[in-house]
Amino acid sequence: MTANAVLQLGLYLGLLLVLGWPLGLLISRVMAGAPPVWLRFLRPLERGFYRLAGVQPAEEQGWRNYALGLLLFNFIGAVALYGLQRLQGALPLNPQGFGGVSPDSAFNTAISFVSNTNWQGYSGESTMSYLTQMLGLSVQNFLSAATGIVVAIALIRGFARKTANTIGNVWADLTRITLYILLPIALVIALLLVSQGVLQNFRPYQEASTVEAVSFQQAKLDAAGQPMKDEQGQTVMETVTTQTQTLPMGPVASQEAIKLLGTNGGGFFNANSAHPYENPTPLSNLIEMLAIFLIPAALCFTFGSMVGDRRQGWAILAAMTVLFVLAYGVLVSAETAGNPAFAKLGLDSVANLEGKEARFGIVASSLFATITTAASCGAVNAMHDSLTPLGGMVPTLLMQLGEVVFGGVGSGLYGMLVFAILAVFIAGLMVGRTPEYLGKKIETFEMKMTALVILVTPLLVLLGTALAVSVASGRAGIFNPGAHGFSEVLYALSSATNNNGSAFAGLSANTPFYNVLLGLAMWFGRFAIIVPVLAMAGALAAKNRLPVNAGTLPTHGPLFVTLLVGAVLLVGMLNYIPALALGPIVEHLQMLGH
Amino acid sequence: MLQHLRPALNIFALLTFLTGVAYPLATTGLAKVLFPYQAGGSLIEHDGKTVGSSLIGQSFTGDHYFWGRPSATGPMPYNGGASGGSNLGPTNPALLDGIKGRVEALKAAHPGEKGVVPTDLVTTSASGLDPHISPAAATYQLERVATARNLPVEQVRKLVSEHTDGAQFGILGDPVVNVLELNLALDALQR
Hints:
- The structure holds two protein chains of two kinds.
- Chain A is mainly α.
- Helices cover 61% and strands 5% of the residues of chain A.
- Among the domains of chain A are: 19-204 and 251-299, no CATH class; 206-247, no CATH class.
- Chain A contains 18 helices and four strands.
- Chain A has a two-stranded antiparallel ribbon. In chain A, strands 3-4 form a two-stranded antiparallel sheet.
- In chain B, 48% of the residues are buried.
- Chain B starts with a helix and ends with a helix.
């Protein structure tokens, strides 16, 4: 790593710690229904919500009712978003006059945004009306983030409580996290982003008269508007000259802020956070990167505070940080070492600038790529399909580890806590003791749920990839030739199942085959994890908390951090090394061999 | 199941109104008061006409202009209505052929430049709308632009350095030159 690469990492982690610590403590107060004085002006709004909705916030639910309520809430969200996309052509706030979205694409996008994946088969600036963006996509950015966080809070309550039948009130939890935490922080971030140049308006797209005219080739259309063909069946091209440039507009900043804060990642525009109107300056880039890890880091402190032992939160944060720094080191080194073929072409640097923006350069692009895939965000400020083979393997593997390296808001913490349970279980087997975590005995039921959580995603990813490369409609979407083409498919399934949402975007995924396959992968990758985690929360809450004794494995020191990092890497590597060998590893060897 | 339906629908509707209507409208209102220029797209006006945005690059091919980075948008480069990158993988022959062709074209247009070609000037950006090039990429084109405009090289060099932004706060990002602003300044010089 270069000195600058280290400096940028240090600056980032330092700021993250300074912001995440107090936020974590704030979240634990808010979720206990006791927001600090300076947030109490929102109390009447909260109470009004409960009154209008007919909710008794003090009436808590057991895990089954909590899970049912949450599933229903998300199902309603998916149906509403599907309907909004299909009907947008007849609805207001559609200055570009976009028609309804096709059924398969609307299905995919609805699940994508509800499951906090934000995989985008469509291209924002030419598909979605302003109404769909704000009333559909933005709303799910908030609500899917809230869903992830409340599941994590419910699991923490499972550890913190003893012999309890309930894990919280799902409606109060969703309302509190949205009202007191997500909304105010998103507003601040949105305004900071606007100050840097991110759009926020409802004007139609603007036409600019450019300085120079552009000549380009396009298909010639016949009277019926169909491309004309010559005798050989080739499309007839014509040369066109234009001196206007379309400048897209829209309420971008409000969506951008929650896109990152909620680790959603769905861009207003096709180029996502590489678009100058979404991410105009290096400062906006830093703000966006901080927004991605802010809540996942903060929740580690919430965890420590809620279970009454801050060291436990530090241990989880330390394990996440170790994995993150390792991943960043590999990615930034690979992009700096670049493409050896560039040297033979007489370029001033082999650094891989293809698919990267000049204002970010190699370091800020590599840091963003690591953060966005370590967290299940999926926003991109560089095109991941054009990363070097090893540079592109890091994001793939970070997703495949189960999005637990900071991970999605809430989902990163509950995923990592499941690995912590696995780690104490392995340690317990080694010394022949009943494993415990935070004073809770880990028994058969918890291990069944743990195994389910850990095995669901690799199964979906690997079977899905195998299916997609076996059938013609799956192979048809591949853009780059050779091993890289396989990497595109593997990346898509890894991204969808683990609810990341970034892509090797060369893959043409807006087809009925991929829309349905990835839609199902996203739904089960999300909710086939959430239900067992809530079941575990219920089982843990019902147990007594055992006192610490001489035989208890301490779960806050360097030994446990090492064990946890080892468990995450072991499971990930065992599942994915063969698949990775066929994609990025082969391509890396090919690149060096040429 | 049914006992959950009423709170689920109600909470969903209320949170939708809060996050999907109140929040974006509040952001728009505040942005309009605090940062009207940025919120509106950082548009550059000339004689009452919008000539572009200082954040969105434009295509330049004339000898008297600095050229920006290659853009992979279709059907024309720098298409603001369809952002995106090439998505070419590192071992795709099309990537290396494309770069080779651009290197040859650049060398042919800059016979005085014997050195290596700046990488950013022959690789496509992520958005296809990158408004910037590296200072090295601007220096590479100095002589061509100065000759085409009958200006002293030093005068053009001075203009380039005036339009070069260092790393933000000295540490964030890479130094860059805004191509559209630089070219507009060149035109203003000779008006």
